[in-house]
Automatic annotation (TrEMBL):
Main location: membrane
Annotated ranges, domain Major facilitator superfamily (MFS) profile: 28-507
Top-level taxon of origin: Bacteria
Chain segments annotated as transmembrane: 26-50, 62-82, 94-112, 124-144, 156-175, 181-204, 216-234, 246-263, 284-308, 314-336, 348-365, 377-397, 484-503
UniProt region (Disordered), positions on chain: 1-20
Matches recorded under InterPro entries: MFS, MFS_dom, MFS_trans_sf
Protein name (Swiss-Prot/TrEMBL): MFS transporter
Length: 508
């Protein structure tokens, strides 16, 4: 029988909740920025080291992408649980445990002697990241009062989030070329130590925001739905969308998702996701926008990296360095986002930033064999990244406004899960689009885009093997990448339309 609705909270509105007593805001922001940087770095730092890992440990054919997939699968599947865990066990405890686990699994990965050990280490990193990713935004919400202070903190956090992947490619190339592939894991040890020192000094030990027993069945259903979805999408490069296996995983995702919603809405005593939080327009809208943005940006970053290496012939280190303008643009967009919202309002700022990102992706869609770096890559990188930086700050600020501090972990988990799952969905869909376009161009031009992965494999950064391909083959690959960029621009355009129709217009 359904339970009665819980009594209305007597806590003051989140906008009037003072900063947490005993916290040191500057050090808290430094701690969560270090954690977020490590989480985003490790999503991409291994990519350029994949060939060296495969040669050193003897990976079987087709199994090397699981070095990437194991991390993404654990992170995407456990984000909601990780966000709610912080509310139940305490923010300080969750942060410290996540850092320790990340450090131990990183060292284990650095010393791995077999493929199974390395994949297990990556899965362990993903579990730790599922705790660390939402706790960063959660601590910002409970430490900084809503307003200018929180906006600045969210801006820095968003800048780290957006720039971490590009920096990961660069750092991975430097460590692999100058030292050894194992250092892409060992480098996390000093980062973890810095994070632990900052967390111990800045985050106070207080009573967990929520009491009661964890929602075990809800956690199993929710985590199961996300895990099956992420796994099914990652396997679409080997099993087409219309295959029995892919359709079966999608059907299983729908079944688990509906069961999760039913349990959370009617029977759970302490739901892992209180569905009532999505009644607020800012909550569901920011979750939807970050899903679309994640789909567009992860796919755009992936295909632009492949374009540099497989079409223009850049090496891993040069390809990583090519993304420095993207990092600079993201930083600039993050810094001006607060002033734009204050002057023009959330609706106009979000819509304009998403349209700017879409224009940048359309610019990317014109890349070809004769493209030069300055006008063909750096230009669209700056345009796209400025829009991304503004959008991430404005959207995160909108999604976290008016949130009860006791549900900060839940909202943070929703935003992070949306970005992660959106990226996985976008990458799977756009990979299919790009491969089809490449095959059409190859057939029309009587060329060959290569063998095996068609230049779109999961471990594709620096491992596609197309640097010496003929002009016809490289032109076919470029046509596929360009088609992916154009569709990505369409996704960002849809997000801009959603923001125009539903985002609150008020200035902050």
């Amino acid at each position: 029988m359904p339970e009665a609705a819980p009594p209305r909270s007597t806590a003051p509105p989140a906008s009037r909740v003072p900063p947490r007593a005993g916290a040191r805001p500057g050090l808290v922001l430094a701690a969560v920025s270090v954690c977020q940087l490590m989480v985003t770095l490790d999503a991409s730092i291994v990519n350029v080291a994949l060939p060296a890992m495969g040669d050193s440990l003897g990976f079987a054919d087709g199994s090397l992408p699981w070095v990437v997939n194991a991390y993404a699968l654990a992170l995407g599947g456990l984000l909601l649980l990780g966000g709610r865990t912080a509310d139940l066990v305490g923010h300080r405890r969750a942060l410290l445990c996540g850092l320790v686990l990340f450090g131990l699994t990183s060292v284990f990965g650095g010393f791995a002697q077999t493929p199974a050990q390395l994949v297990a280490a990556r899965a362990g990193q993903g579990v730790a990241a599922a705790v660390l990713a939402p706790i960063g935004l959660t601590l910002i919400m409970v430490t900084f009062a809503e307003g200018a202070a929180r906006a600045r903190a969210v801006g820095i956090w968003s800048m780290v989030t957006a720039g971490g992947s590009a920096l990961g490619v660069l750092l991975g190339g430097v460590l692999t070329d100058l030292l050894d592939w194992r250092w892409v894991f060992f480098v996390n040890a000093p980062i973890v130590l810095v994070g632990l020192l900052l967390a111990v000094r800045s985050v106070p030990a207080v009573r967990p925001p929520l009491a009661g027993r964890p929602d075990v069945l809800g956690a199993v259903l929710g985590t199961g739905a996300l895990t099956v979805l992420v796994y099914g999408l990652m396997e679409t490069d080997r099993h087409p969308w219309g295959s029995v296996r892919t359709l079966g995983t999608l059907a299983t995702t729908v079944l688990l998702g509906l069961s999760f919603l039913c349990w959370e809405a009617r029977y759970a005593r302490s739901p892992i996701v209180r569905l009532g939080v999505l009644r607020a327009r800012t909550a569901w809208l920011s979750s939807l926008l970050v899903t679309l943005l994640g789909a567009g940006m992860l796919a755009g970053f992936y295909f632009s990296s492949l374009f540099l290496q497989n079409v223009l012939g850049y090496g891993p280190l040069a390809a990583g360095a090519a993304f420095l303008p993207f990092c600079a643009g993201t930083a600039a967009g993050s810094m001006i986002a607060g002033r734009l919202v204050a002057r023009f309002g959330g609706r106009a700022t979000l819509t304009g930033a998403l349209l700017l990102s879409a224009l940048g992706m359309l610019w990317f869609g014109g890349l070809g064999l004769d493209s030069d770096y300055l006008t063909g890559f750096a230009g669209p990188s700056i345009v796209t990244s400025v829009g991304v930086g503004v959008c991430m700050v404005a959207n995160t600020a909108m999604g976290t406004s008016g949130v009860d501090p006791r549900e900060a972990g839940l909202v943070s988990g929703l935003l992070n899960a949306g970005r992660q799952c959106g990226g996985g969905i976008g990458l799977a869909v756009l990979s299919t689009v790009a491969v089809a376009a490449t095959r059409r161009a190859s057939t029309d031009g009587s060329g060959s885009a290569g063998s095996g992965s068609d230049g779109f494999g999961s471990g594709g950064f620096g491992s596609g093997g197309f640097d010496s391909a003929g002009d016809a083959a490289r032109a076919a690959l470029a046509a596929g990448y360009d088609q992916a960029f154009v569709v990505t621009a369409g996704l960002l355009g849809v997000a801009a339309l959603v923001a125009l129709l539903f985002a609150p217009p008020a200035r902050q």
